Amino acid sequence: MTKAATDLAIETTGLVKTFGDTRAVDGVDLAVPAGTVYGVLGPNGAGKTTAVRILATLLRPDGGEARVFGYDVVRQANEVRSRVSLTGQYASVDEDLTGLENLVLLGRLVGHRKRPARARADDLLEAFGLTAAADRQVKKYSGGMRRRLDIAASILNTPQLLFLDEPTTGLDPRSRSQVWDIVRAVVAYGTTVLLTTQYLDEADRLASRIAVIDHGKVIAEGTPGALKSSIGAGTVHVRLRDPQRRAEASELLSRALNAPVLQESDPVALTIRVTGSDRGAAEHASRALADLATAGIVVDDFSLGQPSLDEVFLALTGPSEHAESAAPASSAQKETVA
Ligand SMILES: Nc1ncnc2c1ncn2[C@@H]1O[C@H](COP(=O)(O)OP(=O)(O)O)[C@@H](O)[C@H]1O
Ligand SMILES: [Mg+2]
User: Fold this and answer.
1) Which residues make beta-bridge pairs with 274?
2) Ligand 1: which residues within 6 Å by Cβ?
3) Choice from 16, 17, 18, 19 to test ligand 1 binding pocket (greatest atom count within 8 A of CB)
4) Each residue's pLDDT tens digit, 219-233
5) Which of 184, 170, 190 shows the shortest CA–CA distance to 83?
6) Do 99 and 140 belong to one domain?
7) pLDDT beyond 80 at 60
């Protein structure tokens, strides 16, 4: 094993898995640094779960290679299994048992003696905000509590690598943010997390790097910031005091920023997608503001933001297939990101 291989929690080359005619995973190369949250972002059916199941040794790949901490997932499956844990759509907790009973039972299954199993269960229930519900049957838990218990169950043994397969799908915003806190806590203990998600904001918040996958292929990879800037430096939003001056402001901004202005339905709002380097964008934006001031056009609100991951995804995959991502964008926006 080379030094480089051990610094990577996951390394795959040309990974393929087919189901009949479906190429669920279609030549995936991944390099996941140890000790980080790595996001795999993609819509339903993109191949996320299939990839995770291969990496967790639950499915054999049809082609390519996958290593976890340097161990081959096919030839050294036991080495891999002893280092990883998986939670997601199919969790192992028993609905009829209480949260505490589940964690103690699963703790015994992974090899803890009775007293340490109980102590670990109590610690995890506390850490995950489930102490008050410890003696309640899991079937009476809310979706968010259930998801937190699933994650607690998967880290009874503090795995080196934790797969979280869509851990927040279907959760309300408050439960989602509780799961995010837990993910951050898990990583702080040194566990590498591979997180699959359909939520762009989730990958953006948690992951240090993201692979965007679609139809079994990685269509983009990088830090959230790099992915966002790959489609443009940012978006300038301006709100004017006087709607009468919008046409004039629009012309000035378009000239200063050298980009078309999107006229929003709100009569005082203007949006401009800026291309080029980040620093250039900030400079151009401040010059544009100065031009508006010189012309006596009052600006009530101004912001320069990076494009959202939604816009990145739309730019990468095209608007036609993913209706939910495509919906918020006007046709004018599509042109600018194409
Ligand atoms: N066991 C299976 N048998 C047949 N097709 C499957 C099976 N598992 C997944 N697929 C197909 O493979 C593709 C990828 O699925 P999946 O990995 O579950 O995607 P995701 O987790 O990103 O939603 C989909 O087209 C899905 O229908
Ligand atoms: Mg899935």
Assistant:
1) 234
2) 19, 22, 24, 42, 44-50
3) 19
4) 999 998 888 777 666
5) 190
6) yes
7) yes
